[in-house]
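User:
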Amino acid sequence: MIYLDNAATTRLDEECLEVIKEYGIDKFYNPSALYRKAMESGNAVKNARNVIGKSLGVRGEEIIFTASGSESDNIALLCSVRAKTGKIVVGSCEHSAVYNTALELKVRGYDVVFAPCDQFGKVAIDKLEELLDEKVVLVSVMHVCNETGVINEIAKIAEIVKRKSPRAIFHSDGVQAYGKIPVNLKSLGVDLYSISGHKINAGKGVGALYCRSGLYLKTFVYGGGQEGGIRSATENLPGIMSFACAVENNFPSLQKNYQNIKLLQYHLAQRLDNELENIKINTDIDNSSPYIYAFALNSARGEVMVHCLEDKGIIVGTGSACNSKKSTKRIPQALGIDGSFAEGMMRISFDKNSSIEDVDAFVDALKESLSELVKFQNKSVGKDDCILSRLKLR
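Assistant: Predicted structure:
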């Protein structure tokens, strides 16, 4: 099987699996208990916090462990704003964990507005700036767009936000940036930043939220007071330790991996450009994370191609896995995509283990699948054809 949906989740590193076993079987103690073995577990969590903090250029004490990137986004938006009213500005192409939380804040009485983006999902800074004023209490703009891979100018946006809306808190969803592109939070100037473990080969069910020292967060989960009283719950010790393990595994080779993956992205872009017609490119290859490449077809639905390619042993996505079971036009509309292209969106996402051979196999299989579709539309194939047996066409 060739797996090219790494923006959805990544394969667990073998070393991280061993760490999960170690802290789930041999060192399974509750980090909040008072006996020696438990205190050793507590120290392990502290060390993991420091590892992740160092990778972001911040102190370990500024890292809050969560259950996921989505939970980190929820805490950032729901627990940071102290004013009971005010304006909240959110990017129009945000992950659903931010977008839907913003809609909840709108229900609670906040004036929520969405900053437009360009055709690649990059927030239009001039339009964003027009929305900023002294009434703004929170701004959230993702670092790397999970749909297209475009990189937003977070440091520039943070400077504008602080200048035009001095009481605003600035949050960035960094789930698709962390471990893929260099990130230094002190340089970026953010107040809050969300990350996730399973996007960088750690276990599922663990994430983290950077919270700038001195910034107050309301309690999200009440209980025993873990994570500074913000998120009470027995610490996910195996998950946290696997997260730190993945950071230690991946970050020393971050630049090397970046360069290798950029070659794959360029190779994919070149083959698609040379060999396919009626295709709309949704990724600005010169201003994107190399780990994501998105495009749209006008001759087939994205989900049709996903299933047909799966039959050929290749796994790809149509966009965020969090939206895969829902019919939503929000992202195509935000990107200015309409008509048949809006239904034909596809997202290819790489991992450190991806190869040129994987890219070639994907493009070959995609071309073959599109050829099969043409034959089916001409009613010249049998009922066993993958597209015919999988899903209805338009």
